[in-house]
Amino acid sequence: MILKQGSLYTLKGESFCYQIKVDKHGKLLHTYAGSLIDGDASSLFSLKDRGFSGSDYEEGLERTYSYDYLPMEIGEVNRGDFRTPGIIIRDEKMITASDFRFSSDRIYSGIPSISPLPNLYGEAETLELTLKDECSGNILILSYSLISDAILTSRRLIAGEDIEVCKLASLSFDITYGDYDLITFAGRHCFERIPERTKITHQDISITSRRGASSHQVNPFAIICGTDTDETHGSCFGMHLLWSSSFRLDVGKSQYGATRINFSMLDESMGYKLKAGEELQLPAALLTYSDEGLSGLSLKCSDIIRAHAVRKAELEVENPVLLNSWEACYFNFSGEDLIALAEEASSIGADLFVLDDGWFGSRNDDLSSLGDWNTNESKLGMSLTELAMKIKSKGMLFGLWVEPEMINEDSDLYRKHPDWALTIPGRKPMRSRYQLVLDLSREDVTDYLLNTLTQILTDTPIDYIKWDMNRSLSDIASATTDADKIIYKYEINLYRILESLRMRFPSVLIEGCAGGGGRFDLGMLCYTPQIWLSDNTDAIDRIQIQAGSSYGYPISSFGSHLSVCPNHQDGRITPLVTRSSIAMLGTYGFELNPRVFTNEEKQLLREEVRFYKENADILKNGDFYRIRLDNDIAVFLSVSKDRCKAVLIAVNLSIHGNDVDKYVKLRGLDSSKLYKLSGGKAASGSFLMNAGLLITFKPGEYSSQRITLIAEK
Ligand code: DGJ
Predict the structure, then answer these.
(1) Separation of 215 CA from ligand 1 center, angstroms?
(2) Pairwise CA distance, residues 145 & 153, whole Å
(3) Which of 257, 377, 378, 536 has a CA between 20 and 30 Å from the CA of residue 638?
(4) Backbone φ and ψ of 711, nearest 5°
């Protein structure tokens, strides 16, 4: 419900409330965000004469009304608010200032279209506030869509004169008072999204990706929470930017104790130029809230992403178990090898065979051919279509790897169009994995890519695409696009291609990937329902990567596969069932050649697939809880929405002689129900959640337990 009471706007969800007030001068104050309230929270503001905090000119001789103190909806620069701004606009004379004041409002049902930028879908009510800067004529339109129990923001700037937009936050607000922590998700290639919790102090914190991708190193999801908030208690805000390129999150505490948040695309060097009359649409941002701890927030994020962001592909098979050829054979295969691998995959119960890198141009290693998306028939010994048909005749779906945004210098495409790669005139480009980046800011390059991919999908019966991207962007200069627009246009065109393919081929499942999880964000999830979570397939490392990612994203979006031992990334040896159980906390699949297994192990894998299929609905659509994760044990629980079934997965992380017992208290069950546990025991929900459960393991490193809980009728 969106309430307008005079100049006060209150957006009320089921448990979350966001309040904005237009003040006497037309400026937008952010009065409140948090659990439901009635009343005007600006009554908490304390107006007094504050040294070195000036007042609006219209205040005359009154010295108590300062925008350097008041909690604002968007902080501006050079007009008396000295905190970190959410908007920085420079005019032709290099004067940096803006002063947006209320012009009009509109409340309507639906979500504003911001196409081709990624957006949520579904029922919503929207508040639109139009602000105008009289001096420049610039107009800023702020939209707040109340969707489910969360708020989706989007912003649009219309230039009234020629300007340079140096910064414009998609989400910004001040929290009037209180001590807060910031949780961000940091990492590196093969070890993404590990939570880092920092106290918010008077020092500005900025989390930035400058990589032209949301990146392995940081993530455009972050949490602001009370300093006493933990997994099960306390209030917290989740913030997602629906944007897959460089971004910047600024958080800091003001001199008077308010916490300011600004979440924007691109970094400090954005410098986007607009001519009078031109517009800039900013990416959307999603604000979620829970007063039931980080676990409550994760449930909300998962629910909203599954219901309002992810567009499911209409695949023939539900929850397909896939086998990917990468760790099975890397670049070394013939068509017959792949058919044999697909047969093996089918024999262990996989539904979908994915041919990874190495099928095109003359690619036998990562030195060449990106850009030449024609089948290497001499390597395969057949056409791609023949291969796909042969694999499909075994009753399997067929999937294909592509890395469309990249180009190797050793490719026909580069020899024909060297100007299609991002390159700074007069400088040699930086290589990364021997490849350069295609200039997707160009319409001709975008059209070429879209046509090429459309042709492949038309010619060959493909059910799945793995869309990879294996380097960060550098040398950002284009032969045709103005430098300030390259990243923005690149991203828009990337989304445009993904959306066109999705519309044209609704039954094709596209899995995102960027060297694993280098572009795991809500922007991509609007087009790719699942994303390869990490290039690290070691189950023990994956526990951390999956747990970290689960704070802001549903586990149904985690590309997750069982691989061989010793693990190819770190050499670790882990029991087969442990590897399998961890892979089930995602889109289950295999990254191996089943031929390396004994018949007994293959039988075990078949049973694992059967278990996954039986429980996929609970695992993918249920409520996921991080029950316990420390140096001793990792325990995760997925509970069906009706709380009648649950799957618990536990891994022993430490072994000692005469070891201490390992207990957990479950969550999310129905207290009044009696649950039968696989293994024979039974206990009530209240017992399991309050008294707890003793988890025992077989001896040996990294052994695991998988327990199903079924409520008695
Ligand atoms: C990086 C991906 O994350 C891997 O799974 C694999 O597809 C390789 N690229 C192929 O080059």
Answers:
(1) 15
(2) 6
(3) 536
(4) -70, 140
Record the tokens describing residue 149, joined without a space: 């129990």
**Where in the sequence numbering do the catalytic residues fall?**
521, 601
Instruction: Give dist(CA 410, CA 343) in Å, integer.
Output: 34
Q: Is the CB of 516 under 6 A from ligand 1?
A: yes
Binding site membership of 401 for ligand 1 (Cβ less than 6 Å): yes
Provide the token pair at 238. 């989740």
User: Strands (DSSP E) along 447-507, which ranges?
Assistant: 464-467
Q: Per-residue pLDDT tens for 567-599?
A: 999 999 999 999 999 999 999 999 999 999 999
* Continuous segment of H or E residues that includes residue 685: helix 685-686
What residue owns the CA closest to ligand 1's atom 11? 357
Q: Report the alpha-carbon distance of residue 45 to residue 41 in Å, rounded.
A: 8
- 52 Cα–ligand 1 center, Å: 55
Distance of CA 357 from the midpoint of ligand 1 (Å): 7
Q: Which residues contact 38 (CB under 8 A, 6 or more apart)?
A: none
Question: What does the block give as tokens for 245?
Answer: 């390129």
How far, in Å, CA of 85 to CA of 167, rounded? 8
Q: What is the pLDDT of residue 268?
A: 66
Which residues touch 298 (CB under 8 Å, ≥6 apart)? 550, 551, 552, 624, 626
- Output the pLDDT for position 713: 83
Q: Which residue numbers in the chain have pLDDT < 50?
A: none
Say how far apart CA 399 and CA 389 lie, in whole Å. Answer: 12
Question: Number of helices and strands (H, E) in the chain?
Answer: 13, 39
Name the token pair of 202.
Answer: 């008077």
Longest pairwise C-alpha distance within the chain:
87
Q: Beta-carbon neighbour count of residue 652 at 10 Å? A: 22
CB-neighbour burial class of residue 571 (10 A; exposed 0-12, middle 13-18, buried 19+): exposed
Which residue, among 494, 476, 466, 492, has the nearest Cα to 437 in the 3D structure?
476
> Buried b / exposed e across 280-299, counting CB within 10 Å, b at 16+?
bbbbbbbbbbbbbbbbbbbb
What are the structure tokens assigned to 633, written together?
């044990």
**Dihedrals phi, psi of 491, to nearest 5 degrees:** -65, -45
Kindly report, residue by residue over 167-224, the tens digit of the pLDDT.
999 999 999 999 999 999 999 999 999 999 999 999 999 999 999 999 999 999 999 9
DSSP state of 375: B
Closest CA to 210 of 576, 474, 500: 474
Is 535 close to ligand 1, i.e. is its CB under 6 Å away? Answer: yes
Find, among 548, 521, 520, 506, the residue nearest to 636 by Cα: 548
Mutate to test the pocket of ligand 1, among 365, 535, 558 (most ligand atoms within 8 A of CB): 535
Name 183's Cβ contacts closer than 8 Å, sequence gap at least 6.
Answer: 195, 196, 197, 198, 222, 223, 224, 225, 294, 551
Q: Tell me how far apart the alpha carbons of residues 244 and 118 are, in angstroms, rounded to a whole number.
A: 10
- If you search the block for the tokens 């990334």, which residue do you land on? 569
Ligand 1 atom closest to Cα of 366?
A: 11
**Which residues are 626's β-sheet partners?**
636
Query: What's the confidence (pLDDT) of residue 266?
Result: 83
Cis peptide, bond prior to residue 566, ω within 30 of zero: yes
**The token pair that represents 543 in the structure block:** 């526990």
What is the torsion angle, in degrees rounded to the nearest 10, for the CA atoms of residue 190, residue 284, residue 306 and residue 454? Answer: -80
DSSP state of 360: B
Ligand 1 neighbourhood includes 532 CB (under 6 angstroms): yes
